[in-house]
């Protein structure tokens, strides 16, 4: 059993590794223009699929990497925060739809706005604050009561985690390793093949966005699930994931962590408040984007053009905060981290986020046509 001082040192290592990986994430997104909302916009408005293929490549790498870590015994997939025994289909659909609409109105999802904030965008700073507060309220406040009393009560329960891997093991009788690898090869393989087919995609930025961000997600699973795992904590004598607010293995996500970052800043003097993977990842993304923006001379201040622009971003930020918590994740949390687990809730959340974004884009186009 490790000593208490050893646990404290290991916790700092987990948080430092999280900051570094998150900073790499922010720098890559700033350099490559990776953006889920942008990818949907490109498809809807121009029929251009390059950024969507970036996302598919990142997801494919994350899926295969998570499965290899699990099959190799480095992490415990059943301990993932996405390995819930319930398929929260209604929460993910309603929340995902709200989030998808919100990210169009706010010019990007939570992670994209953190990247923009690091590059000097003051609109993104406003989105961050409002989204964080809305997420906090949906975690513990008024909209949390509404969420808990409505959509969260509708789900499909399973005897084990609602992921393709665990369902394969249960219903097909496969071994744990086989049940992890076969569905991962099927889903991840299809994503990789679709993304990489055609030489037009084989450009440095596209490969960096897909492979780089997918590898960051895999790295975070190792940091949280292997480096941060303590089989017997010296104080509780229970198995523990250090730095985790949920008590489970975590990767990157950017809805609830915005709230936890604000919480840590507001209650910094409270000895019961501790830095977590969630809060550190927010700081890391901003720092990585800032460093890259300054290094490439792309840092510049940007603000709201009109009152209508401000109002639109405020509405979008609220929808993302409420929707992201309700859907149990965002375009990164459910779209990459959750999908890497092959979680049923993640699949339905991603579909709803894309659907909400398409609906918002169509509504914007209709409005512009009427104004014209």
Topology:
Blueprint: H1 4-32, H2 36-46, H3 50-71, E1 86-87, H4 89-105, H5 110-118, H6 122-140, H7 142-149, E2 156-157, H8 164-172, H9 176-196, H10 204-227, E3 229-230, E4 240-241, H11 256-266, H12 277-295, H13 307-326, H14 333-340, H15 344-371
Antiparallel strand pairs: 1-2, 3-4
Key features of this structure:
372 residues, mainly alpha, two-stranded antiparallel sheet, two-stranded antiparallel ribbon
Overview in brief:
The protein is mostly helical and 372 residues long. It is 69% helix and 2% strand.
The side-by-side strand order for the widest beta sheet comes to 1-2
Rg, Cα atoms, Å: 20 Å
Distance between the termini: 70 Å
Major sheet description = 2 strands, antiparallel
Helix content: 55-70%
Low-confidence stretches: none
Q: Look at the structure and give the mean pLDDT.
A: 95
Return the string of H and E elements.
HHHEHHHHEHHHEEHHHHH
Structure annotation, total helices: 15
Overall geometric form: globular
Q: Structural class of the helices, strands and pairings?
A: mainly alpha
Number of strands: 4
As a percent range, the share of strand residues is under 5%
How is this structure best described in words?
The chain has 372 residues and is mainly alpha-helical. It has 15 helices and 4 strands. The chain has helices at 4-32, 36-46, 50-71, 89-105, 110-118, 122-140, 142-149, 164-172, 176-196, 204-227, 256-266, 277-295, 307-326, 333-340, 344-371; strands at 86-87, 156-157, 229-230, 240-241. The chain has a two-stranded antiparallel sheet. Strands 3-4 form a two-stranded antiparallel ribbon. The N and C termini lie far apart (70 Å). The model has no long low-confidence stretch (mean pLDDT 95).
